[in-house]
Amino acid sequence: MRITSAKVILSCPGRNFVTLKIFTDEGIYGLGDATLNGMEKAVVTYLEEYCVPALIGKDPRNTEDIWHYFYRGVYWKRGSVSMTAVSAIDMALWDIKGKILNTPLYNLLGGKSREKILVYAHANGKDLNDTIDKVGKEIEKGFRAVRVQSGIPGIDHTYGVTRGDEAYEPAEKGLPKTDYWDTSKYLNYIPFVFEKVRESFGTDIHLLHDAHHRCTPIEAARLAKELEPFHLFWLEDAVTGELQEGLRLIRKHSTTPLAIGEVFNSIYDYTTLITEQLIDYIRMPLVHGGGITHLKKVAAFASVYHINTGFHGATDLSPVNLAATIHFNIAINNFGIQEYMPHQEIVNDIFKTNYKFDNGFLSIDDTPGIGVDIDEEQAAKYPYSMACLPVNRKSDGTMFYW
Ligand code: KDG
Ligand code: MG
């Protein structure tokens, strides 16, 4: 069996998605998600100019060797752009493998460890009352776990909080806009938000929070400690993961569970964090972390240290990634939770999906492979439209972290 061609489909049904479609000489094709929010065209170029020509003629069943060809084989390793391309290739090849063997992806990864996966919703409000209202709405939809973000008094616009009643979408059209940030205002306010949310909804609902890498290690330690009474499911990206040792300080001061890694793209971003048990959940998603082949190893490595998965799953990851992720989470032993933000209706014009949400859980059917298809004619109706994530400055103008 040989790969005969591959095409990269870039479309914008409300937001940009990049999809890789790999064709074989037996008429079977596979799909992989290659979306990297705000950097879509860089991945498209790497795939089209370098990876696709190198794929032609290879046996698509050799997922392990092909993965290493594009990871070890290249001199300039890792990085978000190239790892997203590797992820898309890998995902598409596993899709093909499932179709050849006429079995859903989860069967190739160990079968079912569970029938359905626990997911968490997003609730973000412009102020405390709005936030409480939004949490209530997610619970009414059946969610048992909710990520809570709130506008902060004195900060004009807080990342992760929608403007008005628009659907959540962190990338905005054109070049990056600028957000302004004040850590002390944030740290003073967020524990109060969680106190009020717990008072309103009790202890049965799981609550999560994302700090978007905005704290220094000692600030993060204070936040984790002050959130302790509200028993979060996790505190995400409390610090930037660039300095893995920084997490030691947070651990020393708090029992709030920690999740990190939606911007990671390799097991080497995680080694200290995992072996020293400095975190509780890995966030690196299939689409940016080297696909199924690499995440299988990262998840297995994490399982040895009692660390579970909690993959990134915002709407800028396509339905192809979401479906592959559900298979993956159904199969592995150390599944923790999955982020789930439903895509806008318009996305379903292009992607035909095979998963369903019911009462706080996602499940997937037995379609062979990943089970998602793409309607290329529809995709062509929604051309790419440039959109970027904002940059972040402190209130005095200093460039600040993501
Ligand atoms: O593209 C960036 C978003 O996906 C990200 O900011 C969302 O932090 C996020 C999350 O936890 O879903
Ligand atoms: Mg996040």
How many distinct helices?
12
Structural class: alpha/beta
Ligands, ions, cofactors: 2-keto-3-deoxygluconate, magnesium ion
Largest sheet: 10 strands, mixed
Helix proportion of residues, in percent? Answer: 25-40%
Point out poorly predicted stretches. none
Number of E-state strands: 19
Terminal CA distance: 44 Å
Mean pLDDT: 96
- The dominant shape is globular
Radius of gyration: 20 Å
Strand content: 15-25%
What's the structural blueprint in terms of helices and strands?
Layout: E1 3-11, E2 17-24, E3 29-33, H1 40-55, H2 63-71, H3 80-100, H4 105-108, E4 117-125, H5 128-140, E5 145-150, E6 172-173, E7 178-181, H6 183-201, E8 206-210, H7 217-227, E9 234-236, H8 246-253, E10 258-260, H9 271-275, E11 281-282, H10 291-304, E12 308-309, H11 319-331, E13 338-339, E14 351-352, E15 355-358, E16 361-364, E17 373-374, H12 376-380, E18 387-388, E19 391-394
Helix pairs in contact: 1-3, 2-3, 5-6, 6-7, 7-8
What does this structure look like?
This protein has 402 residues and is α/β, with parallel strands linked by helices. It contains 12 helices and 19 strands. Strands 4, 5, 8, 9, 10, 11, 12, 13, 15 and 16 form a 10-stranded mixed β-sheet that branches. The chain is globular, with a radius of gyration of 20 Å. The site of 2-keto-3-deoxygluconate has 11 residues, from loops.
